[in-house]
Specification:
One of its GO terms (molecular function) is magnesium ion binding. With about 280 residues, the chain is α+β, with helices and mostly antiparallel strands. The chain has ten helices and 13 strands. About 35% of the residues are buried.
Length: about 280
């Protein structure tokens, strides 16, 4: 798997933010990613999520010690992003392999960025799916929530989440299915109206199909994230099902399950609001 290594950054919105923090982060995005237009709306948590998510590429490039002036953000016609570094002092062969394809997404208290480095046409086919393992809206009966999500599933997938499994297993399996679909839809750059039921994931058999045909050449990395989040004065634990989808072009599609924190250490990095706010002065350099 040395060809196009994958890295994921996860930012936990682990506490309430202040207006000052919102404004400082907003200014960074305004200055460094001017093509991304986010309305200024400090009281709106969704606006803060968008801003923090857009700061992840800045943080990643800063981590690589590449100043902001030395790279540019590019996108394909269907919105797949990649970062191109200035070719100075780089041999042409190295330059070709220096492209960083990435995808950004967020849900509830978790913002994420998945990236791969290599040749541009290879690295842009990456997507991240994040699913909060919880019913929405909060307090909904599980059966009601499952029924609301049913149109996104195929009949075979619905059988994988039968009520006889018990609430916890149903919710977890449903979250895995939705995260797999979101990751794949993001990786291929589909618009929001895409019909999720065109995709079918058979979790026990580890197979994937699109429009009835096998999806070949994909790598699906499936992992969980658990966060402690302070809401007012109470610490609550939130669980997320995450999937990174990447097109490797191999003959078969593979499903890689990462069950322990140890397995994630080599390719998933977790940070929180405090860590992001602390590096703001360095991000604009």
């Amino acid at each position: 798997m040395s060809d196009c290594p994958i890295l994921v950054w996860m930012l936990s919105l682990n506490r309430e933010y202040t207006k000052e923090e919102y404004n400082a982060c907003y200014k960074v995005v305004e200055d460094c990613v001017p093509h991304i237009k986010i309305p200024h709306d400090p009281p709106n948590p969704d606006s803060f999520r968008q801003i923090m998510t857009q700061m992840l590429p800045l943080l990643m490039m800063r981590h690589r010690r590449i100043p902001r002036a030395k790279w540019r953000d590019c996108a394909t016609p269907n919105g797949k992003h990649w970062i191109e570094q200035a070719p100075d002092d780089m041999p042409p062969e190295k330059y070709l392999h220096s492209m960083i394809g990435y995808h950004l997404t967020y849900e509830t208290s978790l913002c994420g960025m998945a990236m791969a480095q290599g040749i541009q046409r290879k690295v842009i086919n990456i997507g991240l799916g994040i699913k909060h393992v919880a019913v929405e809206p909060r307090g909904t009966a599980l059966a009601t929530y499952v029924a609301a999500m049913a149109p996104r599933l195929t009949p075979a997938e619905r059988q994988l989440i039968g009520p006889e499994l018990g609430d916890e297993a149903v919710l977890r399996r449903l979250s895995i299915l939705l995260a797999l679909k979101a990751a794949y839809i993001h990786a291929i750059g589909q618009p929001p109206g895409f019909d999720w039921a065109r995709l079918e994931f058979d979790i026990p058999r580890e197979t994937a199909r699109g429009d009835g045909h096998p999806l070949q050449g994909w790598e699906f990395r499936i992992f969980r994230a658990s966060l402690g989040v302070a809401r007012k004065n109470i610490l609550v634990e939130e669980h997320y099902q995450c999937v990174c989808a990447f097109f490797r072009g191999t003959k078969e599609s593979t499903f890689v399950w990462h069950e322990s924190a140890k397995e994630l250490e080599s390719w998933v990095q977790f940070i929180n609001i405090d860590q992001m706010v602390k590096v703001i002065p360095k991000l604009t350099a």
